[in-house]
Amino acid sequence: MLDYLDDIPGEVNAVLVTGDITDHGTPAEYQEAARLLGTCRFPVLTCPGNHDERSAYRAVFPDGRAESPVNQVHRLAGATFAMCDSSIPGRAGDLLDDSTIDWLDEVLTAAPRDEPAFVCFHHPPVRLGVPFVDAIRQFGEQRLAELLQRHQHVLAVLCGYVHTAAAATFAGLPLRVAPGVVSMIVPPRETGTIIDYRLPPGFAFRAVGEDRGLVTHFRSL
Length: 221
Ligand SMILES: [Fe+2]
Prior knowledge:
Layout: H1 2-7, E1 15-17, H2 27-37, E2 44-46, H3 54-60, E3 72-76, E4 79-83, H4 98-110, E5 117-121, H5 131-134, H6 141-149, E6 154-159, E7 166-170, E8 173-177, E9 184-185, E10 195-196, E11 202-208, E12 214-220
Parallel strand pairs: 1-2, 4-5, 5-6, 6-8
Antiparallel strand pairs: 3-4, 7-8, 9-10, 11-12
The site of fe (ii) ion (FE2) has 7 residues, from loops.
């Protein structure tokens, strides 16, 4: 995927990696991730997933804070990217920590109202018809929905976790799920297995039009 991006003649404003960054959260895996992502010629923005380990993550992707969770805001290319930590140590699915909700409210309040903002995290806060991950999705979504409805400049919610390219709606906003980069997880009607390694990895290009509409192009490699 990084090779593909490296070969394109055009530019992208940012590469969003919405977790997981590693499989087992070991320092060696973070070193490898940092080395690989460091080869990208575009800015790479990350947030942790349920397989990540916060202290090891911070050692390689410092967020300037000493305490959990790992939340970071970036302003680039005329947009705000709030990269939120939706993981809870030792658990698979989860919810945004109270401190993350407060942090997100602050960064969206501080962000320019006339520029789009993206709220990004690992776990989608809705069911997507994939039972294996629906059972361990992001819960406590009502307070997130209420928060997002207070900030009209939020253009979309972007997440990972599910290993399948999917689109849904959350709090009246587009919710976009990135495909997996190693394996795919598809609804049970499509396959007898939970994780399907036969399907090609993929990623998504997202673009904001002049009318602030969100356009997505998917790539399978
Ligand atoms: Fe995950």
